[in-house]
Design brief:
Helices cover 24% and strands 30% of the residues. It has helices spanning 51-64, 72-77; strands spanning 17-27, 30-39, 45-48.
Amino acid sequence: MTIQDDSGRPAQRSHVFILRLWLEDLGSGQTDWRGKVQYVNNGEARYFRDWPTLEAFMESLMNKGEPGEMPTNEAEETRCTSQ
């Protein structure tokens, strides 16, 4: 069974990112947040200083996508059931 997104294309199984944030000392008592995001699916990484850069990187990778078929057991796990 192939799961499709709204456009009818095969949907990506999942996107996994590792996000690291740290406070960097700029001197003179000033600090600024810095970050690194890594796309686990292919290992690509980017450093960033602002949220728009982070967002653009993540969106670009998710929009590329690697079409794949979701295994049956994974599809079943996404259904909600009450017991």
